[in-house]
Design brief:
Largest sheet: 6 strands, mixed
Helix content: 10-25%
CATH topology: Deoxyribonuclease I, Chain A
Number of helices: 4
Distance between the termini: 6 Å
CATH class: Alpha Beta
Radius of gyration: 17 Å
Oligomer: single chain
Number of domains: 1
Structural class: alpha+beta
Order of helices and strands: EHEHEEEEEHEEEEHEEE
Shape: globular
Length: about 240
């Protein structure tokens, strides 16, 4: 299964134009089964989506998980999850994260096989530690393996993500921010160690460099599991 994460910056590109069409084109080019979005909704008022629902229906093969903060939102605190048609969403949850500013995370179970979590962590490291501990607590109550994807907002490659160490493997696919000269590994992946990690990378294209100030990241897992000596495909 291929998963992707993309901070779309409310569909405002590096040219300061709001253009959801090119964001959708980038999403389609990812060829992913599930795409986790950050900053999918605007911040003010009822938080209307930056990617109109009709545009997603007409121009993609994805369905948005039912996470909307309001009737006009796509996600929860800007976190949205797009699931390719053919996969089933079997559970959704919204989590509050501790912070000085409003923050949240979302969890979507796919095909009763995998929990995909979307998160946009805070700007202060102290808050990020608290938020990761909160996520670990939420996910400890679930039985499926989990993958957390999103904008973790941590510039350091060596520090800041220690709270993941006990229950998750952490991977930074590459520099994804800012798009005009990527140097920050802000967009990352944390996953349950029982999952078989295959590949991961940064989706660096000319269009992606202008559509947002973050480049999308992606990861592939082999969801084949061995049960009683038999190989059972679960993805």
């Amino acid at each position: 299964m291929k998963l992707a994460s993309y901070n779309i910056r409310k569909a405002v590109g590096t040219d300061r134009r709001r253009d959801p069409h090119r964001v959708i084109e980038v999403i389609n080019s990812l060829d992913a089964d599930v795409v986790v979005l950050q900053e999918a909704d605007r911040r003010l008022g009822p938080r209307p989506t930056a990617l109109p629902h009709g545009m997603l229906a007409d121009h993609t093969d994805f369905v948005a998980a039912d996470l909307g903060q309001s009737k006009v939102s796509l996600g929860w605190h800007g976190n949205a999850v797009l699931v390719r048609k053919g996969h089933r969403v079997t559970r959704v949850d919204r989590y509050h994260l501790p912070s000085l500013e409003p923050r949240g995370a979302v969890a979507v179970e796919i095909d009763n096989t995998l929990t995909v979590v979307g998160a946009h962590l805070g700007l202060r490291r102290k808050n990020r530690h608290e938020q990761i501990r909160a996520l670990r607590g939420y996910l400890a109550k679930r039985t499926l393996p989990s993958v957390i994807l999103g904008d973790f907002n941590e510039w350091s490659r060596r520090r800041g993500m220690e709270e993941f160490a006990r229950e998750f493997e952490l991977h930074a696919p590459g520099a994804s921010y800012p798009t005009f000269r990527p140097t920050g590994h802000l967009d990352r992946i944390a996953y349950s160690p029982e999952l078989t990690f295959l590949h991961a990378g940064v989706h660096d294209t000319q269009l992606a460099r202008v559509a947002s100030d973050h480049l999308p990241i992606w990861v592939e897992f082999d969801l084949t599991q061995r049960v009683d000596g038999a190989v059972v495909a679960t993805g």
